[in-house]
Amino acid sequence: MTQALALGIDIGGTNTAFGIVNRRGEIIAKGNMPTTGHDTPHHYIAALRHELTPLLDSAGRENFEGVGIGAPNGNFFTGEIVFAPNLPWRGVIPMAKMIGEALNLKAVLTNDANAAAIGEMTYGVAKGLRDFIVVTLGTGLGSGFVANGELIYGHDGFAGELGHVIAVREGRICGCGRNGCLETYASATGIVRTANEWLAERNTPTVLRAMQPNITSRIIHEAAMQGDVFALEIFEFTGKILGQTLADTITITSPEAIIFFGGLAKSGDMLFDHVRTHIEHNLLNIYKNKVSLMQSALPDADAAILGASALVW
Amino acid sequence: MTQALALGIDIGGTNTAFGIVNRRGEIIAKGNMPTTGHDTPHHYIAALRHELTPLLDSAGRENFEGVGIGAPNGNFFTGEIVFAPNLPWRGVIPMAKMIGEALNLKAVLTNDANAAAIGEMTYGVAKGLRDFIVVTLGTGLGSGFVANGELIYGHDGFAGELGHVIAVREGRICGCGRNGCLETYASATGIVRTANEWLAERNTPTVLRAMQPNITSRIIHEAAMQGDVFALEIFEFTGKILGQTLADTITITSPEAIIFFGGLAKSGDMLFDHVRTHIEHNLLNIYKNKVSLMQSALPDADAAILGASALVW
Lengths: 313, 313
What we know:
2 domains; five-stranded mixed beta sheet
């Protein structure tokens, strides 16, 4: 008996996760590989193909209806990845076409955070919601906006780059070449940047000082859990910047919920208590106390894999 | 022969415009009255009813299918006007119900800028566009967002309050009680505020100094047209603040066009050349040189009246 299967691939700044998904939304096999360390997209795809071949073969290639791909700066309309500041390769990469040809499968691509939003709407905490935002706090900050039950793609397929809203005028330089983008503050790399900047500027005692130059968002979280005042203040600062920007964003689409996931979202209330405080503090009164902040209940990469695979059906 | 007619009412901060519209989108009669000068919403509605009665009677009351209302902070879902900083009355006003009862017509209400967006989409320059923003530069700054061909109402009907996005942190105090809202800079009242602030702070010679305290956005425009450097600089400043905020907004919904109307929009390229410059300067590269800035081609109040009336059908 043949089974309808989809391959879902989530291309992150650091890691690529993939999984085989059936019609019921069950991930029946999965794996991952580094996104970095491949000089060109061609090398990357050769490595990806090498990883995927045994999986596809064992599930039976004839069962696959296609491959769905989530990627930073991915464009649903063209299947291209375009000037992605958090990927190792520059310029415009026709990734859907390249992966489709390499695997001999019909390929559809979208923004990684859009894929996550579709995953949350189909299988996660956003089931039944018609107006919500998904914010991914990974290497960068991605977002997917749903309004009237539909993903907002914009006229060109590039809507929803919340990570590149200017959170601080004349602020930190961003990988995109501009200054003050939200993701330079509120992301796994942004919070590490805050730690390193503050360590250089201040003499406050903190357990983080000894960890340089190997500080990660997880290390900052652990220090904060142990009551390190410096680390706690980093979370407060990060939550403030994120909360201020989200308050402005709510003013535009008035979502019922904001759903967070990604590495930094694992810090939970350590971060989100501050985010909530600064959202509410900055909201126009008609929006106050209405927006739920949620954490994705889907295991880490699963929302993105499920969302990517849902593009196939 | 009976005719299907709708009454459209646009409640602005200063002026209320109304018109009788037929199915073909022709305004067959119109008028206006001040919004201000009525102590309570009940007094306002009594005056409105007085103005409308001869119009409704001469067109034949039996021909009307209903009344559509556009109002600042109007909520499509509840028919209420909620905490509108630019209207003379505070709190929550069940305006659709009150007008419906006063006129004995089915009444539907939405945000004034949403009504304008529907008007532009149905009869104006947005015809055929699926992703665009309408920005009204009147007493305040209103906005209506269309994505995937549908107005974004948000989960509570309050989406699209671009005038209350924080353009300048810790900036000017706004009627909403917060600081730095876009409309305190980019609106007919905002630009006058800039003029008065600068006149108090600077000694630059300008024809505007003699006009105090009666400066209007129109007077500033006329001074700029005559080459008054101070007035020209006011337009540059206003265009910069508006352009910066619109660049962030584009990052969220990626519209094909931004359509402006309202009193301040009449300044045309005097304002929009600067808006364009600062949008492009602040945009993430994937959005550059893609967004058209347009001025509404519909006569002043007509877009709002037509949009409001279109709610009835």
